[in-house]
């Protein structure tokens, strides 16, 4: 059965970015370390980077995205990532939550701008073709989805770093949820845990 899967990377102290995140510095100052696992090792904003996932990180990622048919992200993540160069890099269409739907990019980009979470989820499920729907960053989108009881699986990749500041994943979240560990994968750069959200 198709699931709604919320997935994000955090520091040990629960931040999804370092301070001052934004275009050109999508993960904030020092936040590059959160995605060493994605890039296959250390990288910097100024030094350029490639997606060079390998080993347990790649195995984890490949298994996760194999079931994805569509995704949802927030406008902040979209902007901070520089719209991924103007083309959706993820499996299936990507729905971007925004109050500025008039900024919708041209056809063929793989992005659809939507103003509300429920509308985005309905469209994503419809477009996923029976496959899973992924909910990525930012933190606010994941909190909305969890608070609405719409997440079946929460996937947290925890990088071995304490950032001390930035955007916290669960800031202001006051819901009491039980989680069940489905699978854990560890590498040098992250520990990935897949949780079932119990209802």
Structural class, judged by helices and strands? alpha/beta
Physical arrangement of strands within the biggest beta sheet = 5-4-3-6-1-7-10-9
- Let me know the largest β-sheet: 8 strands, mixed
What is the name of the CATH superfamily? Dihydrofolate Reductase, subunit A
Number of distinct beta strands: 10
Which range does the strand content fall in? Answer: 25-35%
The H-and-E topology, N to C, reads as EEHHEHEEHEHEEEE
Helix content: 10-25%
State mean pLDDT (0 to 100 scale): 92
Q: Could you list the spans in which at least 5 consecutive residues all have pLDDT below 50?
A: none
| Top CATH class | Alpha Beta
Rounded radius of gyration (Å): 16 Å
Number of domains: 1
Tell me what the CATH architecture is. Answer: 3-Layer(aba) Sandwich
CATH topology term: Dihydrofolate Reductase, subunit A
Instruction: Please report the distance between the alpha carbons of the first and last residues.
Output: 16 Å
TL;DR of this structure?
With 199 residues, the protein is an alpha/beta fold. Helix content is 21%, strand content 27%.
Structure write-up:
The chain has five helices and ten strands. The chain has helices spanning about 35-40, 55-65, 75-80, 115-125, 140-145; strands at about 5-10, 15, 70-75, 95, 110-115, 130-135, 155-160, 165-170, 180-185, 190-199. Helix content is about 20%, strand content about 25%. The strands form two sheets. An eight-stranded mixed beta sheet has the order 5-4-3-6-1-7-10-9, with helices on both faces. The model has no long low-confidence stretch (mean pLDDT about 90).
């Amino acid at each position: 059965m198709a699931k709604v899967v919320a997935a994000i990377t955090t520091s040990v102290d629960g931040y999804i970015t370092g301070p001052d995140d934004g275009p050109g510095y999508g993960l904030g100052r020092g936040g590059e370390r959160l995605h060493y696992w994605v890039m296959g090792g250390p990288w910097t904003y100024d030094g350029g980077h490639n997606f060079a996932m390998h080993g347990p990180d790649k195995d984890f990622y490949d298994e996760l995205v194999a079931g994805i048919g569509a995704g949802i992200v927030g406008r902040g993540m979209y902007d901070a990532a520089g719209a991924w160069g103007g083309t959706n890099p993820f499996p299936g269409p990507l729905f971007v939550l925004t109050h500025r739907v008039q900024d919708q990019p041209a056809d063929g980009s793989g992005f659809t701008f939507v103003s509300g979470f429920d509308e985005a989820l309905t469209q994503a499920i419809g477009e996923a073709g029976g496959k899973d729907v992924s909910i990525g960053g930012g933190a606010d989108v994941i909190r909305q989805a969890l608070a609405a009881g719409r997440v079946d699986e929460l996937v947290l990749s925890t990088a071995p770093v304490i950032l001390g500041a930035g955007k916290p994943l669960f800031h202001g979240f006051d819901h009491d949820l039980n989680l069940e560990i489905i699978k854990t994968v560890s590498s040098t750069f992250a520990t990935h845990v897949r949780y079932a959200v119990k209802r």
